[in-house]
C-alpha cells in the first residue's frame, strides 16, 4: 500500500492542505479536528484507510489506523489504534490538550458514528468538522488541479470513442454499458464519491428523448427514469430514436479526483430548436468563462446564464422543462458535488483555484436534452477549461 | 414512475412488511417510525423517492414526497411535503398523536439529518429506527426471496460467460471490466447498496494470486490492493499468471435486491493444496446447508466451519492468510451486508426465511484465493441455495 502523506516529495502538498484546514478551523473556532470519512481521510492523506486523522492548530497531524488497516513501520505520526475510545488517553499520554471545541464530521458520518465520537469528549462543545473541511477543500492546490485535468484528458479520450460503439437499434442503456466499458478501460475507477446521503448512481447518465423530462429523486440537472424503481435515475432502456438527442454525463473519476463533462449527440437528424439551444449552452459557457474571475459573485454567473437563455427565447427549456434544476453547476474535486453550488441565492464570490462544473442544459420536449458541461478552474483572467473536447452537437 | 406500494396486487406484500416493522417497533418500545433512507424507503414502498414514510402502530402508513419527487394523484396516504419541519403540524391536523418515543435511522442517516429530524419532536425520547428496520428486514417475505432467486439466476447466467471473455495475457482488471459488461447486459443495475458508511466498491471484486493476501480497509473477506490509493480494494491491475487462481465476487443486484455469489477459476494449472482448499470450502457449505435449520445458533455454523478447515489442516489459510476475516458470511437482501453476521460471537438462532451468504474461503500464499460463496434461504430442512451454478474450480 502506498501512503502518499509519507512520501517526501508530497510533504509540501500536504502541508499546504493542513494549513488550509487549520485556517478554516480558526474561522470556525475549532481547536481539534477528528476526521474519519473516506473523502476527508483521502484529502488529508492521499489514500483511504480505516481510522482517523487528528489535527490540532499547533501540532503535527496524527494518523490512527484501525484494523484491517495497519500503520506502516517507522512512520512518524502514524499509530495503530484498536478503537476510537482510546484517543483521549493517547492524547493525554502524548501531552496533547483535551479539546474544548472539537470538530466532527456532522455531514459526512452517520448519526451513530458521530454520537460515538462525541462520547470521547463529554465536556466539549462540538463544531461541524464537515463544514470546515468543505471550506478548506473548496480552493484546490495546483496538485489537485493537475489531477482533475488528468481526469479530463481520460474522459475526453473515452468520449471520443462514443460514436464508434454506437449501433443503430441500440437502447440508451446498451450505449451506456459500452461507454462504461470504454471509461473503465481508460482507467475510470468505477466508483462515484458524492457528498450527502441521497445521490445514488452507477457510472453515469445517458439521457435520450422524452426521458430527459422525467424527474429523479436525486440532485441531478436532468433526471431520467432509470430501469428499475430501486434506482430511478438515468437511461430508461428504450431504443434511441432518430430525431432525438443523446446526452452523456458520465463518471470522470480516474485518480481519487473527478472531472464532470457532458456532451450531446443526435441520431439521424435533429430539429432547429435543439440546435439553437445547444448553441445557446455554448454561448452561456463562453460568457461565464469570461466573467468568471475571482471576485465575481456566483449569483451573477447564475443570473447571466438565465438572461442569455431568456434573450434567446429558451427560458422555458433551461435546466429542464417539466422539472427544473435550481443550479447551473457545482464545485467538484474528490466529490462530485463540492462547494460552491452555482445557484441564484449564492452570493459568495468566486475565488482563484476553485474548481467548478458548469452545465447550462436545455430540455426540448420529445427531442431530449442538449447542452455542454465543462469542468473549470477559476483563474485571474477567467475560467480555464479542464475538460477540453469538441462541444458541437455531433451525429452518432 | 411506478409506485409498487400503490399496486393492488402488492397490497398484501406491503402489509406483511408493515406488520413485521410494527412488531419490531413494539419490541423496541417505539411509537412512531420516521423513515427516509433509500434502503428503508425502498423496503416500505418498493421504489425510491425523496421524502419520508411515517409508520404508527395503529395507523395506516403515510408517505410524504419532497420535490423533485411528487405524490401521484389521488393516491390514498400519499402527500406532498415541502420540508420535514411540517410533519408535526400535519400530524396534529390529521389527528395523529405526537410520538413520545419516535424511531429515527441512527445508522442510516447522517448526523446532521438525524439532528434535523430530532428537532421536530423536541420533547421526545428517541429510538434507533435503523435497528428496528434491520430486525424487520432480517426475515424475508416470499416475494423478497423470489427477487433474490431472480438475482441468482441472472448472476449465474453472467458467470457462465466468464471463460469466454478471458484472453491470455489479461490483467485481473481487464477481466473484471469484461465481466462488468456481461453483468450490466444481463440487467445488473450497477449500484451496490451496503449498510454503514465504510464500504466503497465498484461492481465487485476480482482477486488473483498474491493480491488475495492484501488487506483493504473495508469489510470484505478477501481485500485486494486495488489500482489507486483512493479505492484500495479488489483487482490490482497485474497480469493473471499461470498457476494462480482468479476469484470472482461480483455485484448481484438486478432488481433492488442482491444475491452474492463467488466462484473461482484458475489459469493453466493449480497446485494440489489449492484444489484441496477449494474442495474443503464445498465440504463446509454442504455441512452448513445441512445443519443450517431454524434454531441452530449462528455461532454453531461458524465453529463447525472452522472445525472442518482445521481437520483438513487448512486453518492457517481459512478466511485469509496474512489477514483474516472474522466472519464466514452475512445476511443479504436490499443491502449487501444485512443481519445476521455469521461470526463466532453471534449466538442468535437461525430463523426460517433469513437469507444469508456463506463464503468459506481460503488464501493459498502465492496462488490466490479459493472457495465458493452461495446465497441461501433458511428453510425447515436446511439451507436452500439461491445461487445455483457449478462450484468446481474451473479452468479459465
Description of the structure:
2 copies of one chain form a homodimer. The first copy, chain A, is an alpha+beta fold and 396 residues long. The first copy, chain A, has 2 domains: 4-138, Creatine Amidinohydrolase, Chain A, domain 1; 142-395, Creatine Amidinohydrolase. Chain A has helices spanning 11-27, 38-45, 87-93, 111-118, 129-138, 142-159, 162-165, 172-185, 272-291, 298-311, and strands spanning 32-35, 51-55, 62-65, 78-80, 102-104, 127-128, 204-208, 245-250, 261-266, 327-331, 338-343, 355-358, 361-364, 368-371, 374-379, 382-385, 394-395. In chain A, the strands form 4 sheets. The first copy, chain A, has a 6-stranded mixed beta sheet, sandwiched between helices. In chain A, α1 packs across α5 and α9 runs antiparallel to α10. The longest helix of chain A is centred in the C-terminal third of the chain and has 20 residues, at 272-291. The first copy, chain A, is elongated, with a radius of gyration of 22 Å. The model of chain A has no long low-confidence stretch (mean pLDDT 96). The interface between A and B is large, with 66 and 66 residues.
